[in-house]
Amino acid sequence: MNKTTRLRPLTRRQDPASASRSPEDDPGKTPQQHASQAQAPSGQGQEAERGAWEERPLAPRLSENEAALRELFCDCSDVVFRKVRVPDTEWLIVYIDGLVKTDDLHMHALYPLLFEDPEHPDVVRSLDTVLQMGLSVSQVLEVHTLGEAVERILSAHAVLLMDGQTKGLALNIVNTNRRQVAEPLSETVIRGPREGFTEVLRTNTALLRQRIRTPNLKMVPFTIGTQTRTQVVLAYIEGLADKKVIAEVTQRLKNIRLDAVLESGYLEELLRDSPRSPFPQMQYSERPDTVAAQLLEGRFAVFTDGTPFVLTGPITFWQMLQSSEDYYEQFWMSNAIRWLRFGFFLIALLLPAFYIATITYHQDMIPTSLVLTVAAARETIPFPALIEALIMEISFEALREASIRLPRTVGQAVSILGALVIGQAAVQAGIVSAPMVIVVALTGIASFTIPKFNAAITIRMLRFPLMLLAAVLGLFGIVLGVFWIAVHLCSLRSFGVPYLAGVAPYRPGELKDILVRAPWWHMDARPWSYAKANRRRMPDGLRPSPRR
Amino acid sequence: MAASLFLSGCWDRREINDVAFVVATAIDKAGPRYRVMVQIPLPGQMGTLGQSGGGGTSGTKTFYVDSAVGDTIREANSELQLAMSRRMSFAHMRVLLIGEDLARVGISPVIDVNARIPQNRLTAFMLVVKGQGGSVLNADAPMERYPAEMIRELAGTQTMKNPRRIRDVLHALISDGLDPVLPAISVVKTEPEGEHDAVSTIRVAGYAVFRGDRLAGYLEGGAAEGLLWAMNQAKNPVITVKPPKGEGKITIQFPQTDASLRVRMRQGQPVYSLRIRATGAVIENESNYDLAAGENMEVIERTAKRVIEQEVYQALAALQHRFHADPIGYGDALHRQQYAVWRKLRTHWDEVYTKVHTVVDAEVQVENTGNVREPMGIPRKELTE
What we know:
The complex is a heterodimer of chains A (548) and B (385). Chain A is of the alpha+beta class and 548 residues long. Chain A contains 17 helices and 13 strands. With 385 residues, chain B is α/β, with parallel strands linked by helices. Chain B has two domains: 206 residues, no CATH class; 166 residues, Nutrient germinant receptor protein C, domain 3 (GMP Synthetase, Chain A, domain 3, 2-Layer Sandwich), CATH 3.30.300. In chain B, helix 4 packs across helix 6. Chains A and B meet through helix 12, helix 16 and helix 17 of A and loops of B. Chain A: This is Membrane protein YfkQ. Chain A: Keywords: Membrane, Transmembrane, Transmembrane helix. Chain A: Belongs to the GerABKA family. Chain A: One of its GO terms (biological process) is spore germination.
């Protein structure tokens, strides 16, 4: 019944490449794989500090080990030391209260140790026999050094040490009593799975594994963060993902020497190709189906323990305007909505700038009756159009920010204040004009139609420089600004994949998932830009028809 | 690229509230000089926002009219600008009005300014005003927000299939064998019940026919209709015919019309054939003529055909003999269709034009009689077969 993984002794000093492994190693992996996927050494300063005790092998005398552990965990009130005395020998169980499921610990570790089986009275006298016959815990790792023991304890294992033995057992009895799998709040859909990732890495990888049941789905573990020792998993599908990209992202992950990783955003900023670009170069998602779809197109995913947001890459600009629901709804509707997003993306970026430019420079371009209406509305406004636009746009951003940060109950008040004070009173008082309110409102709505929040923020930010350019140079300024953005987008890369891939460089085959969403029976090829290894998704001729 | 930001030329930022949008210009003769009158809507008076009930304060007009005299139109505009706190913008000028006096001495000089400055739109409608050009700009025209809008709508909907724009006039002036024709408008009093309720408004009053760039005269009524038929510019024309039997009249409207002008040589002389095709519907039958009976519809079609041909002949007679003007483009047709002949005739085309013969052939089809076929309200036994 019991499965054991033998850990080889830690060799961090000698061979940085095969240093400590993530505690959650897949049991089925071969040692060779472990060696190749191991984690890079941490920062040198911390290294020296920890190295002294980390390397120390476990002493044969239990009291010595206990003293060492107690010293390390001194003033750690949440660490529990439990000594068990059995005939001929002593056991010590160390774990962190709250991280370990104590019920299971009692049932499956303490109980068999304390109450020996009359048929096998000698079981508890040796670590090996205990491991083989005495513990009803499925995942047990062996630890050999103090450092390993500490790492296991910290990653929610219960470590079992025995007098007279130079190794210990780490029992995986993780307390899984965390937030349940719930509907993802940041990416809601009408049609589509309602499951979202949680803060627990294993739950998240399980959600993904449930969707892609192939041994080709690889999950390479990393431990990042010299203080936090955060578990990170790089997932990809072997045979679909570009090997070079996977090698590159592995290398980049190994190079990360942050002291803490509390959210996947920490990693995102260190994994990007162009660190200063305002455009997101990795996508994050709370949705297992979205991540699964990305992997199936040959991308990779980076799971980070402690956050429901899973990073995926390489990405293209077009993904910013796609939602998982596009692929679940019938394609006519998806196309219509996708085009709506394209249109509103332009509105979100350009409308205020365009409005400023036309009413301060190019009145000739507006139809006569409209220009008179706008002029009438602006008759009493004391500010130039740019100032008016800035007042409104900045208040809108403030309003949005306030409503996100505030507790939901107070959020109502904010929207009332916003709608009433800014929307109506300001117009009636003649401080801002009604057309400007319409422009700002439309822009706000447009930016909310962008499915990816990080992309929407980028667009919202870029609109301000465009407004300034429009106010200074009119349409010429807008053209300059858009030109600059376009040049920037063309030069961006996400893990070596051009940001506008499909359009620039032009790959006609990929357009069927960029400009339109082709019906599934037509999307027989994976996007060439990422899924270089295996382009075909399915055979030809799947279109349903009465007679074949 | 940074440098290009500063090399963009003139910086012409103007807030929308510092611009006076000229929506109409009327040009008149003032002795040897020009009087230019502009109409500018007052956005503040137009009541779009915040003012309950809309429609500006009673008593104040929603537009502003001013005029100035100058040797050139631009000079007059500069004079005007001196009395305006907002910069005049001509980009929204949708109608250009020419006073009758000016039209008689020639319109070529005033077109230059409209073609020279790109801010001015060649797509503006051009009309001739009977009397002083400025008179229409001061009409009440209560149907629209300001008179220029009314004139624009009139020109666009009530005149021709392709309402005459400045560029059409330019085209006619420059072309060999084509003279401009413009709709004419005038100020009229409305005719409500009480005399004191009457307001002034603007109506289309025939067509101003030019010979070269000078006004030759006006065509009105049937002759004007005939001109439009011949130019293939008749827009939803309505004709009233008298049925051969019975009493009363029948009115027919033709939503689909077409005209083509061919020229052939006969005994060394150009002979024109004008084919008109019209498809229409009976919109009123106040006679006791039964359209449903026998061949009566064909009879009406033949009658309508004669009426249309009559109108065209009437127009042609006026054009050839009275105005010596060629707005239909007889010369142009000869130029295109019989170039060798045109080269021989072009020097004395004006004389030839007055003598050429035209065969007008209208092909009338009445497809529809509305919801009913027999005249409503007349007992069946009183109908004539």
